[in-house]
Amino acid sequence: MTVIHIPGSKSVTARALFLAAAAKGTSTLVRPLRSDDTEGFAEGLARLGYDVAKEADRWHIEGRPAGPAVTEADIYCRDGATTARFLPTLAAAAASGTYRFDASAQMRRRPLAPLTEALRTLGVELRHEAAEGHHPLRVTASGIKGGELTLDAGESSQYLTALLMLGPLTAEGLRITVTDLVSAPYIEITLAMMRSFGVEVTRGGHDDNVFTVPPGGYRATPYAIEPDASTASYFFAAAALTGQEVTVVGLGKDALQGDLRFVDVLRRMGAEVRSTPDSTTVRSGGTLRGITVNMRDISDTMPTLAALAPFASGPVRIEGVGNTRVKECDRLEACAQNLRKMGITVETGPDWIQIHPGTPRPTEIVSHGDHRIVMSFAVTGLRVPGITYDDPGCVRKTFPQFHEAFAEFAELTNR
Ligand SMILES: O=C(O)C1=C[C@@H](OP(=O)(O)O)[C@@H](O)[C@H](O)C1
Ligand SMILES: C=C(OP(=O)(O)O)C(=O)O
Fold first, then answer.
1. What domains can be seen in the chain, in order of their start residue?
2. 20 to 30 Å CA-CA from 20: which of 47, 161, 162, 297?
3. Cβ(300) to ligand 2 under 6 A?
């Protein structure tokens, strides 16, 4: 049995940074993720004049309920969509100021329009400097009164998370009616974390799709960041593929992240899964069944399953994952391209991929600068020696030490 310690959750760290920055008092984040996305978020906060003091496994953030300490700033959001969507929203709540946001070429391609349209509806002066609905943008803030919004979050739940977290920073609060929602479990993370920082959102409507966010701001709190469940998927998949037993500590029945449900997919394929409140164990004899599975709620783990799929005894069909086409790359096509390069038969549709059993041959993975493409095919690499990557370093987005950690893990499980 191998016990694995996974670095902190990107999603939880990003939210904790936002909430701590907006709260009254000083918050300490325990074991935040240290990666390009979260360092970029913290750097953006510092540029807005927030005080972020970093120790090895603790970040202390002095909250500023009145908003940024500066009235002008230029912020580079790197590749991180949480940074690129959450930080302009935080800045928009300032009493006054003009803030310019830009991002990498990859992030500039990713959409933002439903969020920026919602901010405009709330009275924020927001200009897209190049393409409408994309970075770079200029936000001129003058305080937000609040009120009613209708939001389509069918492309990204991050639009809704940003607006929910904005709610308590408005004068009168927000009432958001959501017409469509992808990646729904991320909203549960947002609501639970807002609660930890002192804000209770009420949810109603025929489909639980109306969110009422009270005004009044956040309260600082010490906050322990749980390990990243999307990152854990590579280790769980590795156990399922190689017939090992792997336990991830710090992620169990009490975890906030929906991506932990990836183990249910492995269970359906034949792996054995055990959970305690604080750990999850996957064990497998190494044989896996084909399945049809809808991954709309947990699509960051779609590439993990795609990389595992050729080894199943029947086809693996993954549905409900159209929004993976607007992530770091078009993940449906990137998975199909790399699997085909390995000699595997793959079909794709607008929001699905079907992968047939086969014997992958080694190839150079075309990563498209996407951390998850590299980390996923590292799982395939456990059974296919000779796989290489055109851009192995892109794992820095969420797990800079991935290659060392995965190699060490592979060595341990080989003993
Ligand atoms: O809110 C978050 O922290 C995230 C939400 C998801 O995005 P979408 O809602 O765009 O699918 C997920 O893919 C991303 O990695 C992190
Ligand atoms: C989609 C991802 O990231 P983000 O949207 O936060 O950039 C991811 O980490 O897989």
1. 2-213 (3.65.10.10), 229-414 (3.65.10.10)
2. 297
3. yes
